[in-house]
């Protein structure tokens, strides 16, 4: 019988060795299990419907159907599934295309393997996993996009965000982690998580990167 608290993880990677290594690594931890390994993203939606994961680790460069096409298909059909992209190189174009496609995180294959485990846990809790360099690139990109919009409707949409939610969204834009937000706002990690899930619902987004993008694009924070 499945344990309800287990984080179910699926892996897409064209390297057999990496698929096996990730599967073994994931299954070492009591709070997660690997429920599927696949060599490319062809028919990704059907594959995931068969194994029902919470989180997907998606390689970007794969034959036949690559990871970016895979995440587009997954988020269109299974928006509740969280996708973390994996790549060898810290490439700006792939990073931005992945985020636009709906990825909730972006990690490098050369990172410590236990960083992957941390990324899975963060993603399952609604966080966005990426290293500081990648996060800075994302913030600069979205700030630049916002600055390019010269004309903006003076009646900004509020989405009925509470004052606390607006404060937390502002800290997300600044790149703070859940723990840092909890410390800054003097509230618990669990409370931060609850507020962020409410923010996602109100903004009609599924990840921190989408929330940050919308906040900057529509001027939701000062």
Protein described:
Helix content is 51%, strand content 14%. The protein is α/β, with parallel strands linked by helices and 222 residues long. It has 2 domains: 124 residues, Rossmann fold, CATH 3.40.50; 66 residues, Arc Repressor Mutant, subunit A. The protein has a 6-stranded parallel beta sheet, with helices on both faces. Helix 3 links the parallel strand 3 and strand 4. Helix 6 runs parallel beside helix 10, helix 7 packs across helix 10 and helix 8 crosses helix 9. The termini are far apart.
Describe, in short, the structure shown.
With about 220 residues, this protein is an alpha/beta fold. It is about 50% helix and about 15% strand. The protein has two domains: about 5-130, Response regulator (Rossmann fold), CATH 3.40.50; about 150-215, Arc Repressor Mutant, subunit A, CATH 1.10.10.
Which features would summarize this protein structure in a list?
globular, Arc Repressor Mutant, subunit A, alpha/beta, 222 residues, 6-stranded parallel sheet, 10 helices, single chain, 2 domains, Rossmann fold
What is the strand content? 5-15%
Radius of gyration: 17 Å
From the coordinates shown, what is the CATH architecture of the largest domain?
3-Layer(aba) Sandwich
Shape: globular
Count of DSSP strands: 6
Reading off the top of the CATH hierarchy, the class of the largest domain is best stated as Alpha Beta
Largest sheet: 6 strands, parallel
Q: How many angstroms does the end-to-end distance come to?
A: 49 Å
Number of domains: 2
Biggest β-sheet: strands ordered side by side in the sheet: 2-1-3-4-5-6
- SS element count, helices: 10
Helix content: 40-55%
Low-confidence stretches: none
CATH superfamily caption of the largest domain: Response regulator
Structural class: alpha/beta
Q: CATH fold name of the largest domain, please? A: Rossmann fold
Instruction: Give average pLDDT, whole number.
Output: 84
Helix-strand pattern, N to C?
EHEHEHEHEHEHHHHH
């Amino acid at each position: 019988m499945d344990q309800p608290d287990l984080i179910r993880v699926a892996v897409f990677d064209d390297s057999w060795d990496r698929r096996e290594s990730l599967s073994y690594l994931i299954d070492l931890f009591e709070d997660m299990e690997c429920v599927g390994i696949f060599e490319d993203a062809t028919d990704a939606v059907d594959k995931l419907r068969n194994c029902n994961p919470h989180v997907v680790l998606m390689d970007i460069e794969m034959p036949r159907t690559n990871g970016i096409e895979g995440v587009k298909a997954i988020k269109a059909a299974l928006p509740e599934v969280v996708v973390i992209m994996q790549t060898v190189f810290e490439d700006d174009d792939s990073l931005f295309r992945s985020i636009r496609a709906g990825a909730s995180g972006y990690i490098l294959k050369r990172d410590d393997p236990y960083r992957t485990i941390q990324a899975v846990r963060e993603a399952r809790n609604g966080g966005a996993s990426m290293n500081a360099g990648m996060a800075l690139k994302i913030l600069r990109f979205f700030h630049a996009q916002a600055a390019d919009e010269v004309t903006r409707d003076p009646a900004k949409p509020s989405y009925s965000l509470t004052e606390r939610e607006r404060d937390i969204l502002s800290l997300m834009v600044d790149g703070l982690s859940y723990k840092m937000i909890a410390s800054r706002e003097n509230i618990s990690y669990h409370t931060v998580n609850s507020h962020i899930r409410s923010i996602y619902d109100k903004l009609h987004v599924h990840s921190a990167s989408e929330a940050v993008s919308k906040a900057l694009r529509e001027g939701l924070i000062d």
